[in-house]
Amino acid sequence: MYPAAHFQQHDSKQLQQLVNSYPLATILMPNTQNQLNDICRVPLLYDSAREVFIGHVAKYNPLSSFDGQNVKLLFSGDDCYLSPAYAHNKTLPSWLYSSVYVTAKVHIVKDQQHKEQIMQRLTDHFEQHFTQPNTTKWQLDEVPVKHRQAMYQQLSFIEFIPSQWRGNFKLSQNKSVDIRTAIKQSLTLLGKLSIAKLID
């Protein structure tokens, strides 16, 4: 079984928290011409109320032709080198990481009002960080409606409907409590707080 059972993460709250914190998805699409997947990277927002991911790509992106088909979404969280020094030389050198894999069906949005809603939702979400002094939060309505509609013709708006979630959190879960505690303390002292707080 891979990943090993102790590295599998099934807590839906933690999986959703990772995709919200690291929204840039690597999307794997089947390629009928060869055995390799086509790959593109797209920022996606998970709408937990509707249980769908939303995003948009350029109209010429191959993803635009996958309406009704399944693709794989990969979200990579924080990662770092694990030095034996972090655990008093009781581990070998390794790497800590967290990731989420989602199988999802592609739905290409055709309705103009729905496209506008998706763009508004994405804009509001990703612009929310620009609320500090001396920063300006951009508003979608700064672009005239006519120009927005013209730009939307160059985009494909997509909803991804998930059917399976899998978490792979390699955080020394196979080590003893005292070793994990030492690793967590070392990471905290080094300022690697986002990955340290994932370690139980």
Would you kindly provide a written description of the structure presented here, covering whatever features stand out?
This protein has helices spanning 12-21, 112-127, 145-152, 177-189, 193-196; strands spanning 8-9, 24-29, 38-43, 45-47, 52-58, 70-82, 94-109, 155-170. It is α+β, with helices and mostly antiparallel strands and 200 residues long. Strands 1, 2, 3, 4, 5, 6, 7 and 8 form an eight-stranded antiparallel β-sheet that branches. A hairpin with an 8-residue loop joins strand 2 and strand 3. The mean pLDDT is 90.
Give a quick summary of the entry.
Helices cover 26% and strands 34% of the residues. It is α+β, with helices and mostly antiparallel strands and 200 residues long.
Rg on CA atoms, Å: 20 Å
* Series of H and E elements: EHEEEEEEHHEHH
> What is the count of helical runs?
5
Give the overall shape, derived from the CA principal axes: globular
Q: What's the helical proportion of residues?
A: 25-40%
E-strand count: 8
Beta-strand portion reads 25-35%
Low-confidence stretches: none
> Structural class, from secondary structure content?
alpha+beta
Mean pLDDT: 90
State the major sheet. Answer: 8 strands, antiparallel
Distance between the termini: 23 Å
